[in-house]
Design brief:
Layout (H helix, E strand, L loop, with lengths): L1 E4 L2 E5 L5 E4 L5 E4 L5 E4 L25 E4 L4 E4 L5 E4 L16 E2 L2 E2 L4 E2 L12 E2 L1
Antiparallel strand pairs: 1-2, 2-3, 3-4, 4-5, 6-7, 7-8, 9-10, 11-12
């Protein structure tokens, strides 16, 4: 079913999936589980009116959300795990982790260093 509502184009599939094009050109796709992806400015579309007239989307369980370009892949799994594949990750701000961080075979919390000598010298690199 396709319809127009306040400069918004929507397509609702019988499965409960909804695709919306917003007045500002944003594109949003919603899975029956409630997972969605939006490309554009602003908050996700309010779809309360889509469920009007007695229509209720079926429950859809869990869904993976994927975003891919020619150089980046982002996957959000139903259990909350996030996988990001890219050449370089640049973070503009702090990174806080409640668990350990591992680079290759070296953990941040439990690594040891090579070439340790008493005194004021520097140790060698971490031991994998």
């Amino acid at each position: 079913m396709t319809f127009q509502e306040q400069d918004r184009a929507m397509y609702r599939h019988p499965s409960g999936a909804v695709v919306t094009v917003t007045p500002d050109g944003g594109i949003e796709a919603r899975h029956p589980s409630g997972a969605y992806i939006r490309i554009g400015d602003g908050a996700p579309a309010a779809l309360g009116s889509v469920a009007a007239n007695g229509w209720t989307p079926p429950s859809g369980g869990s869904a993976e959300v994927s975003l891919a370009t020619s150089s980046v892949t982002l996957l959000v799994k139903p259990g909350g795990e996030v996988e990001l594949t890219c050449t370089t990750l640049k973070v503009m701000g702090d990174i806080t982790a409640t668990g350990d961080i591992t680079a290759g075979a070296v953990t941040l919390q439990n690594h040891q260093h090579s070439d340790v000598e008493p005194g004021g010298g520097n140790s060698g690199p971490p031991v994998p």
